[in-house]
Specification:
This is Neurobeachin. Residues 811-832 are annotated as: Disordered. GO terms for molecular function: protein kinase binding. It holds the Pfam family Neurobeachin. By secondary structure, the protein is of the alpha+beta class. Among the domains are: 186-353 and 416-459, Jelly Rolls (Sandwich); 552-754, Serine Threonine Protein Phosphatase 5, Tetratricopeptide repeat (Alpha Horseshoe); 755-832, no CATH class. The protein has a 17-stranded antiparallel β-sheet that branches. The protein is elongated and about 110 Å long. The N and C termini lie far apart (113 Å).
């Protein structure tokens, strides 16, 4: 180790002298640390020097921002340990910006295990620095997180002495970002330097008789944003030694397809699509060969046709194609090498159809297999994506039509693979040809390709694979038990984050939405039951609108997704979370109103939901919720019912009425799904009306029953008769409230007006109920008030309306008849 206190190191006084030193970077960082400790440099000078050493030259956010040596990141960490918080914050803020700028920078951090080092430093960091470290961890972990790093992250959040460790709760922000990945876990990385490419072995001939198709997922990741118009990076180049063949290269954001017929002469076509840097695209270039008419070229981007043209692309030659490159031309010059990432690379010996390419796109960028077995992909495709009708339909939206022909997994696609290079199937710089062994070989000798210069296969680790290795989603559940714990933080730090629960729950829901394995884990461990139990033991302050939004978003996802576990998972989510009033009764009224508004409107609007909620138990559960939780007046005194939900604050009276309105709307729609009301469902409503004696608790439920009887008599009348609903009516007629008595008369009127003569006779006559009706109305002691008279008049003529009339009824029409004359005979009174 060199002595930094001796010349020439002791002669260094300024940061600009550090970068000019003719020594290794570790010594340069050591000298810079010495300058910081003696206070000879400003913060800006240190930042500039560190960035210069990282990128190997003058740093520029547009021109020079790629980290050249990953080991310098470790040297930077050592330097940061000697910096004040303000300087650390400056360095970290710029460092985060360059991480977002390039995947190669993210990979450099992964190579040195930066997540591990940052987690070690987090508890000691000042708040301003800790926030930046959390932000950077989110960026790094969403790119790649190993099992060891994930275990360390969870360990950092484990409570110590009944408290959250310092800054540990902020790590939930990191978890929240992890599922947000939009690329493959493994890919080829092209650095964009001279000589970097994947070179293919010579092909004896080119497969043209049935056309051919080149397809891959790629991402442009330019070294700088200034030379993008000057450079012409090549996606592929398949040529003979005479310079004839097929190429595809980028000019700016456009892709140009070239068919070189003779050296220097050929045809070109510009694809009408703008490819943005740093975004993943699925591309398929289809060469269609027609012997007697003009041939065609089609380019599909993300499963959709982007451009097509008629072009005589066929190159007639007997020479072998011995100048074949992925990501470059034969010259391998710097201006024409590809800079970015590619997933698995396929060449098919036939012109694939639009529908095949649409289905392949649906498999996602992570697919890297041979289309031999439909279970080789962990993405759940509908059956009609696996076996789709081959006709002239032009878009992916036609997948839900009648399906007769197999497309992806009938063996034809697999047998058509000419070559396939998979970033997983590599050995050093050798890239193994991974097409099925029985396929026709077009290669002269060995089919394996070679990765030149710094092209390499990169393997990253998603949160899904890492989480599965440490026990699955259930390892997150103990964090719910820590939500109410205090934080180990100085008094000057801000109070605990009220969004802790929504962040944790949002992370769990994102995992469930994005991974079928997590869905299976949630089913096996009854995850929603556990979460519901944990949340009921915590403060209801955690059940914020954002927490509810996470549940509702997951519900919408499970309703529409095609996973085999989605139906069972949806039922558990509904039973243990959304339909669990004990969980929500003490939350803010706005949260409860939003929940039941969703259930009453958007939830039942989707036809796919019926199979999961069309159960008698759901109706019974909802009526139970009204009875025991969302009562308007406490039912203990008059009804003798022990109410629930008294352990904490309840919504105000007006909010209870609003929530009940949503619940009853949901209940009404739920009852009428399918073939109408079921007898057990109606029985639960009648039981409610019979056992509840508070008028305020009866009015809205009775009004809903009247509405059902009026609007759906075909199913309501027989069920009402079968369950003895008239007994409930006469119970209601003894109410002290005139409004309840009037509603009971309305209900009786609708029932009788929609019943046959035989049904009316069988219900009313055996027990002389018309006389009992007069007795019940007379028992009120109020005489025959006008609204009661109007209701009896409607009952007499069977022209019943839902509205209660408090003024004189209209004059009877000529066609009106006395349908129930015993109503008048039993009362023997005239209108007041």
């Amino acid at each position: 180790m060199a002595d930094l206190k001796s010349p020439p190191f002791s002669d260094i006084k300024r940061p600009e002298e550090v970068v000019r030193m003719t020594t290794n970077d570790s010594l340069k960082f050591a000298v810079l640390i010495g300058l910081i400790e003696v206070g000879q440099v400003t913060n800006r000078e240190v930042v500039n020097t560190v960035l210069h050493l990282l990128v190997g030259g003058e740093f520029d956010m547009e021109l020079n921002f790629v980290i050249q040596d990953a080991q310098n990141i470790q040297h930077m960490l050592e330097l940061l340990d000697h910096c004040p918080p303000s300087l650390q914050a400056e360095i970290w803020s710029v460092f985060i910006a360059i991480l977002r700028k390039s995947v190669r920078n993210l990979q450099a951090c992964t190579d040195v295990g930066l997540i591990h080092h940052v987690l070690q430093r987090l508890p000691r960091a000042e708040t301003v620095v800790a926030d930046l470290l959390i932000e950077m961890l989110g960026v790094l972990a969403s790119y790649s997180v190993t099992v060891k790093e994930l275990k360390q992250l969870f360990s950092a959040m484990k409570a110590v002495n009944g408290k959250w460790p310092r800054h540990s709760a902020k790590l939930l922000n990191v978890l929240r970002q992890m599922p947000h990945r939009n690329g493959p876990d493994v890919f080829f990385s092209f650095p964009g330097r001279k000589g970097s490419a994947v070179v293919l072995p010579p092909l004896a001939r080119w497969p043209y008789e049935n056309g051919f198709t080149f397809t891959t997922w790629f991402r442009l990741d330019p070294i700088n944003s200034v030379n993008i118009e000057r450079e012409k990076p090549y996606l592929y180049c398949f040529k003979t030694s005479k310079g004839v063949g097929y190429t595809a290269h980028f000019v700016g954001n456009c892709l140009v397809l070239t068919s070189m017929k003779v050296r220097g002469k050929g045809f070109q076509h510009c694809v009408k699509y703008e490819f943005q840097p740093r975004r993943w695209y699925a591309i398929a270039v289809v060469y269609i060969y027609n012997r007697w008419t003009k041939s065609e070229i089609k380019c599909l981007v993300n499963g959709q046709l982007a451009s097509s043209t008629e072009m005589a692309w066929f190159v007639s030659t007997n020479d072998p194609f011995d100048k074949c490159y992925i990501g470059a031309t034969a010259e391998l010059d710097e201006e024409r090498v590809f800079c970015g990432q590619m997933a698995a690379i396929y060449l098919f010996g036939e012109a694939l159809t639009t529908h095949q390419i649409c289905a392949m796109h649906r498999l996602g960028p992570g697919y890297k297999s041979q289309f031999r077995f439909d279970n080789e992909c962990n993405i759940s495709l509908p059956e009609n994506h696996k076996r789709m009708l081959v006709d002239e339909l032009s878009t992916c939206h036609t997948w839900f039509t009648a399906i007769t022909a197999e497309v992806l997994y009938d063996g034809k696609l697999s047998s058509a693979i000419v070559f396939m290079y998979n970033p997983v199937a590599t050995d050093g710089q050798l890239c193994l040809q991974s097409a099925p062994k029985g396929n026709v070989s077009y290669f002269v000798h060995t089919p394996h390709a070679l990765m030149l210069q710094e092209v390499k296969a990169v393997v990253t680790h998603s949160i899904h694979s890492a989480l599965n290795s440490i026990g699955g989603v259930q390892v997150l559940f103990p964090l719910f038990a820590q939500l109410d714990l205090p934080h180990d933080a100085p008094a000057t730090d801000p109070k605990r984050d009220p969004m802790l629960c929504s962040k944790l729950l949002g992370f769990v829901c994102s995992l469930v939405e994005s991974c079928s394995t997590v869905q299976q884990h949630m089913l096996q461990c009854r995850g929603f039951l556990v979460i519901s139990h944990m949340l009921q033991r915590c403060s209801r302050d955690h059940l914020t609108p954002d927490t509810l939004a996470s549940f509702l978003h997951l519900t919408k996802h499970l309703v529409t997704c095609c996973s085999p576990n989605s139906d069972l998972l949806l039922k558990q989510l509904l039973d243990h979370i959304l339909f669990n009033p004990a969980l929500w009764i003490h939350t803010p009224a706005a949260v409860q109103a939003r929940l039941y508004c969703y259930l009453a409107t958007d939830f039942l609007a989707d036809a796919h939901i019926y199979g999961s909620v069309r159960r008698v138990s759901t109706v019974l559960q909802t009526v139970h919720t009204l009875k025991f939780y969302y009562w308007v007046v406490n039912p203990r005194a008059k009804s003798g019912i022990t109410p629930k939900g008294l352990e904490g604050p309840r919504p105000a009276h007006k909010d209870i009425l609003t929530i009940r309105a949503y619940i009853l709307l949901f209940l009404k729609q739920l009852i009428m799904i399918g073939n109408g009301v079921k007898e057990d469902e109606l029985q639960s409503i009648l039981n409610y009306l019979t056992t509840m004696h508070e008028d305020e608790n009866l009015h809205d439920v009775l009004q809903m029953l009247i509405s059902l009887m009026s609007e759906h008599p075909s199913s309501m009348v027989p069920a009402f008769d079968a369950k003895g609903g008239v007994r409930t009516i006469f119970k209601l007629l003894s109410s002290e409230s005139q409004l309840i008595r009037l509603q009971a008369l309305k209900l009786l009127g609708f029932f009788l007006s929609r019943s046959t003569h035989k049904r009316k006779y069988d219900v009313m006559s055996p027990h002389n109920l018309y006389t009992l009706l007069a007795t019940r109305l007379g028992a009120s002691g109020e005489g025959l008030a006008l609204p009661v008279y109007n209701a009896l008049y409607e009952l007499l003529t069977e022209h019943v309306g839902q509205q209660i009339l408090y003024t004189s009824h209209p004059e009877p029409q000529p066609h009106f008849r006395l349908e129930n004359p015993r109503v008048a005979n039993s009362h023997g009174v005239h209108p007041p």
